[in-house]
Amino acid sequence: MKDEVTREDRVANLKGLGCSRKRVEDARFTQGKGNYVDDIKLDGMLFGDFVRSPYAHARIKSIDTAAALEVPGVLAVLTAADLEPLGLHWMPTLAGDKQMVLADGKVLFQGQEVAFVVAEDRYAAADGIEAVEVDYEELPVIVNPFEALKSDVVLREDLVAEDGSIPPGAHGPRKHHNHIFTWEAGDKGPTDEVIANAEVVAEESMYYHRTHPCPLETCGCVASMDKVNGKLTLWGTFQAPHAIRTIVSLISGIEEHNIRVISPDIGGGFGNKVGAYPGYVCSVVASIVTGKPVKWIEDRMDNLMTTAFARDYHMTGQISATKEGKITGLKCHVTADHGGFDACADPTKFPAGFMNICTGSYDIPTAYLEVDGVYTNKAPGGVSYRCSFRVTEAVYFIERMIEVLAIKLNMDAAELRRINFIRKEQFPYTAALGWEYDSGDYHTAWDKALKAVDYDGLRAEQAQRVEDFKAGKTRKLMGIGLSFFTEIVGAGPVKNCDILGLGMFDSCEIRIHPTGSAIARLGTISQGQGHATTFAQILASEIGLPADSITIEEGDTDTAPYGLGTYGSRSTPVAGAATAMAGRKIRAKAQMIAAYLLEVHDNDVEFDVDRFVVKGAPEKFKTMKEIAFAAYNQAIPGIEPGLEAVSYYDPPNMTYPFGAYICVMDIDVDTGVPEIRRFYALDDCGTRINPMIIEGQVHGGLTEALAVALGQEIAYDDMGNVKTGTLMDFFLPTAWEVPNYETDFTVTPSPHHPIGAKGVGESPHVGGVPCFSNAVQDAFRPFGNTHTNMPHDHWRIWRTANELGLHD
Amino acid sequence: MIPAAFEYHRPQDMAEVLAVLEEHGDEARVMAGGHSLIPMMKLRMADVPHLIDLQDVGGLSNIDIGDDSIRIGAMVTQAAIIDHEGLGAVAPILREAALQIADPQVRYMGTVGGNVANGDPGNDMPGLMQCLDATFTVVGPEGERDIPAREFYEAAYMTAREDDEVLTSVTIPLPRGGYAYEKQKRKIGDYATAAAAVQIENDGGTCASVAIAMTNLSDTPVYSEAAGAALVGTSVDDVAIKAAVAAMLGDIDPTEDNRGPVAFKKHVAGVILRRAIERAWSRA
Ligand SMILES: Cc1cc2nc3c(=O)[nH]c(=O)nc-3n(C[C@H](O)[C@H](O)[C@H](O)COP(=O)(O)OP(=O)(O)OC[C@H]3O[C@@H](n4cnc5c(N)ncnc54)[C@H](O)[C@@H]3O)c2cc1C
Q1: A638 and A763: one domain?
Q2: Has residue A205 been placed in a domain?
Q3: Where do the DSSP E strands lie in A444-597?
Q4: Interface confidence (ipTM) of the complex
Q5: CA of B259, closest CA in chain A: separation in Å?
Q6: Topology of B7-53 in CATH?
Q7: Is the confidence at residue A350, as pLDDT, over 60?
Q8: Which of A70, A561, A591, B119 is 20 to 30 Å from B96 at the Cα level?
Q9: Domain span including residue A713
Q10: B261 chain-A contacts, CB cut-off 8 A
Q11: To probe the interface with A, which of B1, B2, B184, B266 has the most A CB atoms within 10 Å?
Q12: Residue B141: is it exposed, middle or buried by C-beta count within 10 angstroms (0-12/13-18/19+)?
């Protein structure tokens, strides 16, 4: 006889929810056996690459391709003139604007795509690019959105009517020829009134600088048109492969069943791979024209300079409170720099994303938000870099405003947060700007965090440090960065959220094999998040088969069910929910089969870990493995053979993960060098599926937060030249720059998600940026600092110290 | 980021190198570790129709420690400098500086010869070699000649080496006293915002001699004789250090870039030099 298998053993064997199961993806990644787009090599494959504009604003007088066509290996050079007859010289952006695929008479930003050289290999393509002669006439450059709104220079002539009037854009009326939209949330009148009559008002203007998601793998694709069967296969770095298929079909006219989009392994996305880029369109056209597969891969400079920036929000805020610190109102205005085209990746009804979550974690009765989108001579984009739509901007805004208010009130910023948090019993809570927060327990998380770092001790140490500094005993200041954030993730609800008309549900399809293993396919696509690991765990707990016996597949539109992809932390909230729901359908059928096999009524069996047992007689049971076999191989009256299920899940609401972060930093006043001594991160993402993966996500998100707060930017000079086009100047932290992170958690399950999970991948970025920034700002607070803009690189920190008179 | 087409030469000895250089004139360039040259070629900022790889040329990778000088072959890598035990004992400043260059991957490829011949004001070894009063030996069609490091740098990417000459070794008088290489940078793999090399001798509490050189604060490395003069004969107290910093600030001429504006760079240069002097003095 074998040793008795306990119930605990059976649970452990599943490696289901709560298990720090090792990532099944890592065996191939750590051995260099991943299969990324650039690993795809097809017979006769050609290579395409762009001639890009050196100017930020110029008219194209002529393009001469003759010399390029003489370069050995160059087969074709596409220009707007070639694409126009096909109607493919422009494409719709996710924000409903028109983006030129190849510049048609004019360029609007440095690096803009002007011609597409198709060659036998990438070396010949590079030589061909050199040989294309473009005659430009330079035009006045505008890199500042405030100037753009005053300037006579028309950036987008195509959006001005012949009589000079300005027709409305995709998001309503436009105020100026360089204006894109105005978007409002909340009540202006009442907010103004509250602020006008308030006991205390704090005001601040802040610029959240332009940066870039910068995944290790740049964007790229391989397009292969099979002229015999009329089928187009498109491999690419797509965070939303199904949406890409639909968009390609709509703009190319190829029927959707004749398009197969495949996202293979993706080396990080962070929002950079959500949109559609000219490279995709040109590769498809080039493959149709040449009849051969065509590959396009960005190099690092192309990636930094042209595909999908993030942020670039100029924000002005007013926050009002009683003398005791109870917040009464909040007002925010944003001037959003969208660059030459409006290519923001946001749900259609939200041209400024979920910026209206900017009341944060606080019970603020009255609020008003207004966002103006503006064209400038910068690259298009405006994606959510490791956050849900514009949530990083919103959280940065409110977490800075709280600090500024604390200074005005001469109050401790931790205490100010505590007295304004939405209280546990207020959930579900409807915020002044419209969102219904599903759940939260902020006070518990905050108290746990403050206790973990000995907050009062830190403040005492900081006060001593200020004394020592003033006495000339040290040249280092100490900053304590606080941040409490609420994310809004998991778009969906289809009634609120669509992209270009595509509803933001997601899906899972499960097939159980006769011997009790399974394959599940989802509409999402992992870019490093570990879906193959975690979704198998959700399913293991739902259907009682071990996670190790479940294959997860995503990214092939010919096999996976339709879904809107992975970004905005939506995979677990939406596709994870679909997985659980599909699993429950499997279980329901399994229950009927079990009852039949056990010769009892359906209601007389119950699910127990990995089996159905007869109620009150646990020794009578059928395991899921046995049930699977029977489902296929035993004739059961009234039940179809097979064991499969599919679920399309439209979430009733978003989920609202939250967290409390604290950073302790020492700053060398003379050199501007910050040193992070400690970073504590408490995350509440509801039910924790795989704690190890959560920890990894938190580390990664915090590191990208550190990057953005302390130096990572896409900077332009006045001529619109990108000053940070390589990794020498664009800050990507290495292990050397990254501190040790202490992670912690509380668990407040989402009440509407089938397993109570909320999504976590982006929380650390959202909460991390203000935490690092607040630490820098806090170090200088005793000397009169209220706010300085990020990025807090050495010279800007030094400048703050200098302006405060801390250098002699 | 793909270079223009080029011819690749891989000569087996110096005579062959010189012959290829002579044949192709300024169309040809030697490559050592390639970690400055190849990026420039990929950006198409350097056009090198004939690339001459030095790696098979013998006799360029030795480190010889003599009684009063050290000779380092041009092809000695930065990693080899760090790993060499004898060198660490007689000239620890070399190791301290090399550890602050780039990252381990780059240091396995990047060479001493390439670093000093490159002429990029961002390179750390030119300033270091000026501090140590090194001599560069070059060989050309006319034979061998020696050029002092302190006379080698003319402007950014312009040196006293002729196009048809190859640098073969660097000779350093055995350094004496305390040392420090202090560098501020934005991150691993970055060139200096400001860096200072200091080698200083302590004779019973008085500074007997000192050499000071600064990196990335002008279009060439800056050997600051005046800064040194401000310290010699003093007890290296606060007043003397202040004078040395002031003298150094008169010699540098930084420009604004993404690391920051001129005022910031000057301030940091002063702080870095002060720290370097204090550290070197504490070791003297
Ligand atoms: C990411 C990165 C970070 C870096 N950070 C730093 C840093 O912090 N500090 C620093 O000092 N350097 C840095 N470097 C540069 C690195 O140290 C280079 O390796 C070094 O500058 C050049 O050495 P090399 O052997 O690679 O020379 P190569 O790149 O091969 O050559 C450089 C130049 O010198 C010429 N040359 C080379 N050898 C000879 C010779 N024997 N005779 C005549 N001419 C010759 C070449 O023709 C070329 O013009 C960095 C490089 C990278 C890629």
Answers
A1: no
A2: no
A3: 476-486, 498-499, 502-503, 506-512, 518-522, 550-554
A4: 0.97
A5: 7
A6: 3.30.43
A7: yes
A8: B119
A9: 309-490+654-803
A10: 795
A11: B2
A12: exposed
